[in-house]
């Protein structure tokens, strides 16, 4: 099905578990689906969950995933204490790092599964929107604690939707503050690409380099297509105010004006003596996205 990009798979329409399983197997060979909404009643049947998980792990073009599991309240409570319930699906969600939006509804998650999921989300370099509903108190605590411990260096998440739970407001506030920080960085980076080269905006550019939201803002405000927006961003990254040694060190907060090295006892070349080309070569090996402050 090469013409399909958004897709809905529902057990309300495919009410035969074998057909449902086969559908996910067919999807594995499709390289065109970018958005998938799954509504399944028998999500915990091993063959269905295994087929769904296999597809998610292989789906490199899939960006937006929404999973609904239809379960009644007693079953939901039982499944939340079962460490194997949803394990294959959780591992697949944590494994696929190309997803940019994930929504999970009515999917019972054990404490261990919540930790796996939170680690995967915190380490993803593409995930920008996350929404999870229905977590038990224990699972919710595990999820928040794990997510908070790894999210500080995440500059991709812009929105996190979680159920309200008393007693966990501190972690939730930290997460929401980080998403607000990231949203501000995205806005500032887009301004830089659009021509506002204020140092305040320049600091944001490399932290969110390649963020799809930056490109979409540029595309919308500059009235250009996706390819032109990407070209504008790449040109902005190559500007001397971002790439030069002195400018780079100023943005990183290492120096106030320029780099000056104390002469050594030997005749070794000092950092401030490097040519622009040599410095760029060195800089390409640095993890620029972790060296600028927000």
Task: Offer a concise description of the structure.
InterPro entries: LRR_dom_sf (IPR032675). The protein is of the alpha/beta class.
Estimated helix fraction? 40-55%
- State the distance separating the first and last CA atoms: 43 Å
The biggest beta sheet reads: 6 strands, parallel
What overall form do the CA principal axes indicate?
elongated
Beta-strand segment tally: 6
Poorly predicted runs of 5 or more residues: 288-294
CATH top level label of the largest domain: Alpha Beta
Compute the number of structural domains.
Answer: 2
What is the architecture of the largest domain at the second tier of CATH? Alpha-Beta Horseshoe
> How big a fraction of the residues is strand?
5-15%
Rg, nearest Å: 23 Å
Total number of helical segments? 13
What CATH calls the topology of the largest domain is Leucine-rich repeat, LRR (right-handed beta-alpha superhelix)
CATH level 4 superfamily of the largest domain: Ribonuclease Inhibitor
Write structural notes for this entry.
- This protein has 2 domains: 160 residues, Ribonuclease Inhibitor (Leucine-rich repeat, LRR (right-handed beta-alpha superhelix)), CATH 3.80.10.10; 108 residues, no CATH class.
- It has 13 helices and 6 strands.
- A 6-stranded parallel sheet has the order 1-2-3-4-5-6.
- Strand 5, helix 6 and strand 6 form a beta-alpha-beta unit.
- Helix 7 packs across helix 9.
- The chain is elongated and about 75 Å long.
């Amino acid at each position: 099905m090469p013409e399909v990009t958004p897709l809905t798979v529902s057990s309300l329409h495919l009410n035969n578990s074998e057909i449902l399983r086969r559908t996910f197997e067919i999807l594995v060979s499709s390289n065109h689906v970018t958005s998938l909404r799954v509504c399944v009643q028998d999500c915990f049947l091993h063959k269905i969950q295994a087929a769904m998980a296999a597809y998610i792990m292989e789906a490199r073009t899939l960006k937006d995933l929404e999973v609904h599991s239809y379960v009644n309240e007693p079953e939901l409570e039982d499944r939340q204490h079962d460490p194997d319930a949803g394990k294959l699906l959780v591992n697949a969600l944590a494994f696929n790092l190309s997803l940019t939006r994930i929504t999970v509804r009515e999917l019972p998650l054990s404490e261990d599964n919540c930790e796996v999921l939170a680690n995967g989300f915190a380490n993803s370099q593409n995930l920008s929107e996350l929404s999870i509903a229905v977590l038990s108190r224990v699972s919710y605590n595990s999820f928040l604690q794990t997510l908070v411990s790894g999210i500080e260096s995440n500059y991709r998440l812009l929105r996190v939707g979680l159920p309200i739970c008393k007693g966990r407001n501190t972690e939730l506030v930290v997460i929401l503050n980080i998403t607000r920080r990231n949203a501000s960085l995205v806005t500032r980076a887009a301004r830089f690409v659009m021509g506002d080269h204020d140092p305040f905006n320049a600091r944001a550019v490399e932290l969110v380099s390649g963020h799809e939201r930056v490109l979409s803002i540029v595309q919308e405000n500059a009235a250009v297509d996706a390819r032109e927006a990407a070209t504008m961003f790449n040109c902005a990254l190559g500007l001397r105010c971002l790439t030069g040694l002195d400018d780079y060190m100023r943005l990183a907060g290492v120096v106030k004006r320029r780099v000056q090295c104390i002469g050594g006892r030997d005749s070794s070349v000092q950092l401030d003596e490097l040519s622009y080309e040599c410095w760029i070569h060195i800089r390409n090996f640095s993890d620029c996205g972790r060296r600028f402050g927000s």
